[in-house]
Amino acid sequence: MAFNKMLELFHKNLLSDKTKIRSERIILMIAIASFIIHLLIIFFVNYGFIPYQTNSDLLKNPIAAIYTPFSFILVYEVYLLIYYLPKSITTYIIKQYEIITLIIIRRLFKDLSTLSLSSDWFKIKYDLQFTYDLVASVLLFFLIYKFYVQSKKRYRSLGVNEANGDGMARFIKIKKVIATILVPILVFVAIFSFVNWFVSSLNSNPSSDVSFMNINNIFFEQFFTILIIADVILLLFSFFHTAEFHKVIRNSGFIISTILIRLSFSVSGLLNTVLIVTAIFFGLLIIIIHNQYEKHIAQIEGNAGHKLN
């Protein structure tokens, strides 16, 4: 009983609707303020008011200032992912896909400030990457839309859900525990990752592990590693709720999709973009096939019910 009360208390303080609304307002204010501050820093650096010599793409062009508020919006998306974890697995997966898509959009804003408009467009490495990301962002938007449509389809009868009521209640409780634990872990990882990057970026040593070159990976590389662990734990506990083959395959497929996204942070260029698109396309195929299973089972149960009547 004490554990249940403590869980509800932490969950209410960290993941309630009230906390969600308050967090949204705070993040939006921080995002707007950070955009203005970034613009001012670019202005002061470019006009020599700040004697700071840098080759950073983020301090050359005002367009790059959009990168900063997008980073805070991504932080809020991470919070929403954890918020929806106890409520819906498919919404939780959609949030993963939205986060990686927003990371690509954020990268586009950064790359926009360094584009080289010339007849050698397809020979310049960074222009090629911009092209890959531009095409991928549209494709990912479409794939996420199709995934959302599939996630809303329901075929099983209410009787099936009622029969698994106790198991579902236990599974939701487990998801609440995992979500509540994830909040402080991810806050710690976010702060540690930023401080580590900031200190390393001030280091003039060119062999530093963390630099402006891999700024897109800050926090999110570790974040998706943590998600993989959380997904595996959820998969194992889901067996207490159901052992149906198609549901096990669906949940396992979602883990594979998350692993592919995590692997994308380890590579660059076209392979990075291909891995991300493949991850979401694979997740879409998994949920489509799962829904066909559900539809077929619902038809069989419906036909059996008619025969009994």
Key features of this structure:
single chain; 76% helix; 0% strand; 309 residues
Folded structure, characterized:
The structure is a single chain. This protein has 309 residues and is an all-alpha fold. It has one domain (2-302). It has helices at residues 2-15, 17-46, 67-84, 89-112, 125-151, 158-163, 165-201, 220-238, 245-264, 270-308. Helix 1 crosses helix 7, helix 2 (17-46) packs antiparallel against helix 3 (67-84) and helix 5 (125-151) runs parallel beside helix 10 (270-308). The radius of gyration is 23 Å and the shape is globular. Residues 158-163 and 206-213 have low confidence and may be disordered.
**Largest β-sheet summary:** none
Q: What is the molecular shape?
A: globular
What is the typical, i.e. mean, pLDDT? Answer: 81
Compute the CA-based radius of gyration: 23 Å
Strand content: under 5%
Structural class: mainly alpha
Instruction: Estimate percent helicity.
Output: over 70%
> N-to-C terminal Cα separation, in Å?
45 Å
Question: What's the structural blueprint in terms of helices and strands?
Answer:
Elements lengths: L1 H14 L1 H30 L20 H18 L4 H24 L12 H27 L6 H6 L1 H37 L18 H19 L6 H20 L5 H39 L1
In short:
The chain is mainly alpha-helical and 309 residues long. It has ten helices and no strands.
